[in-house]
Structure formats: structure tokens, C-alpha cells
Amino acid sequence: MTAPSPWWDPDVYADRRSFLAARGRITATLRAWFGSRGFVEVETPILQVSPGNETHLHALATEIIAPDGGRSRRYLHTSPEFACKKLLAAGEPKIFTFARVFRNRERGPLHHPEFTMLEWYRANEPYETLMEDCAALLAETAKAAGNNATPLKEWRFKERAADPLAAPERLSVADAFTRFAGIDIMATLSGSQPNTAKLAEAARAAGIRLADDDTWSDIFSRVLVERVEPQLGIGRPTLLDEYPMPEAALARPAKDPRLAQRFELYACGVELANGFGELTDPVEQRARFERAMAERQRIYGERYPIDPDFITALARMPPASGIALGFDRLVMLATGAARIEQVLWAPVADADP
User: Fold this and answer.
1) What's the pLDDT tens digit per position in 262-272?
2) What pLDDT, in 10s, does the model give residues 52-71?
């Protein structure tokens, strides 16, 4: 069997060149968009004390060796979020960053171990403003992908299509679960703790296969991935809003305390962005992180440290909204690429030679 040619093979690269040219135009266009609205572009360190404290998020680790030989564990960040929030605490009102981020155990048409996250934050503004930002950025991206002459009015991925210029639909998680899975998710949130047994019964009745040890969050994710996500962003983008609080570890509560100020942006069934009304209570944030790391220890036999400097900064951070957008996925949809490697200048090698 002949080994595939490397990404830098001239013929392979030539097939990708148009995608990469569009990526450059989109990057320049979005930078200009943020600049015209008073945002400051920031750069954050990749090496962090903590890579993040989500249960199922896997990081890459390394060591810093001091001149005296002392060693300290550091992680390649999975998001620039912690550093960005420290900048909000320092007094920056509106910031954005194109950050190289790293996640282990992720590789596929939409996943890459190293990728670009476009994140932006607005101090003293509601998270609904981010929804308006998303609609504007999709339109700007469409114009840039069409070389500003003819905006591409249809994006496609796996036979699913959406018009990036259309006004996004705002859909609550509860309504989406009812519409696409026939599940009343709110009925499983009626007590002080999510009702795993009730959600498991509803999911099995909907034909979802479960494991005996699945938690409420496991079942929620299965239903979301199998039944809900493929139906989102069809025809026009979707803003999936008001996530259950157990699925929003960094978000403020919504008017209904069972729900959170969290939304995700979808187009063509692809998740593009994850936005929050940011939690600024350091005591509550530490408690949420501790619960997540206890669950990580149970499932994977490891936990990541909690960054005490981040917890301290939250007490100084103003009310804010923030969002993380998978920039490579955005370029994929805008250019019609089928795999994330097609829009990366230099993909990570699949395996050692």
C-alpha cells in the first residue's frame, strides 16, 4: 500500500491553495471588523498552570525546567479564556484574539489536535450582543470568501446547507430537545439535582442507546449529538440558547436558575461557536471546577489543577460576555472544504515517520 503524500507535496498543496487564500482574506476581514468596533487584539500565553477544568476536555502537558534544574508542570492551553478574563480584570473593555490552542484525543474531519480559536469578550455587555456579533461575522466571512465581489449565499457540509447571510434562528435547548428528540429536558431538571433516571427513560424511549453507567450529562450529550445537532443550522444559522446549568460550568444563571446564559452557534449541522454570559463569582466558580475535576478523576483517573490566579482575578473582573469560535471550521464552511486539514497551512503529521 502506497503511503499518502505529505501535505507539503506540491500537488497536494496546490489542491489546498484556494482554501488557504480564502483563509487569509477571512482573517484580514474579521480583524478589520473587530478593529472598527473598538476591540483590541491581544496575545495570550500558550503555557498555562491549568489547561481548563472541563470534565471531558483533554490537554497536552509539558515541563518548564528552571536554570537551577527545578521542574514545574505546565499545559498547552485548550482555550485562551483564562488569560483573556485576567485581561478583563486588568481593565480591558473589548478584546479579541486568534489563538493557537491544543486538545488531545481529537482528530477527524472537524477536529485537529492544534487549531485556531477566535475568542472575543465584551465587558459590561449582555451575551445577547454576542449573538448579534455572530450574525455580522458570518456575513463578513461570506463576503471575504467570495473575494468581496459575490458573497457566497450557500454553505454546505455533508449535504446540509445554510445561508450565512440569513438572520439566525434563536432556539432554546428545551425546545430543540422537544422538537427533534421528543424529550422534555426541563422535566429532568425539576429537583435540586438533575434526574438521571428520568432522562435515561426518555432517551431510551426515543431510541438512544445508553450505557448502564451513563450520567445525566452523558445522556444529554448523546441526545444532543445524535438527534439535535444534525438538525441545527439548516437553511439558516441557529443560535442554540439557554443550556441546562449542569452543561455551563463558566456561565451565569439565566432567569430560570435551572438554565444558564450559554448559547452555541451552528451552521450546516456544525457547531461553530460557544458563547456565555460569564460567571464572575469566584467561590461558585471554584466549586464548579472542583465538581468537574472529581468527575474527571472518576472517569479518567486524573484531574487538572485549578489556577488560583484565575479564581482571584474573577473577583476583580467586571460583568462580561465572551465567546469562542472555531476559526478553522468557519473557513471550512465558507470555502466548501470537506476536512479541516484542507484549511490549515501546515497540518500536524498523522504519525511519526
Assistant:
1) 999 999 999 99
2) 999 999 999 999 999 999 99
Flag whether the pTM goes above 0.85.
Answer: yes
Separation of alpha carbons 113 and 13, rounded Å: 20
The answer to whether position 68 is within a domain reads yes
Angstrom distance (rounded) from CA 137 to CA 259: 27
* Residues 100-131: b if buried by 16+ CB within 10 A, e if exposed: ebbbeeeeebbebbbbbbbbbbbbebebbebb
For 118, the 3-state DSSP assignment is strand
Strand, coil or helix: 13: helix
Task: Write out the three cell numbers for 216.
Answer: 445525566
Distance CA 279, CA 265 (A): 20
54: domain range? 10-164+266-343
Neighbour tally for 275: CB within 10 Å: 26
Domain contains 95: yes
User: In angstroms, what CA-CA distances link 20 with 26, 145, 214, 346?
Assistant: 10, 10, 41, 10
> Residue 176 is placed in which grid cell?
430543540
Is 232 a member of any domain? no
DSSP state letter for 278: B
Structural domains of the chain, count: 1
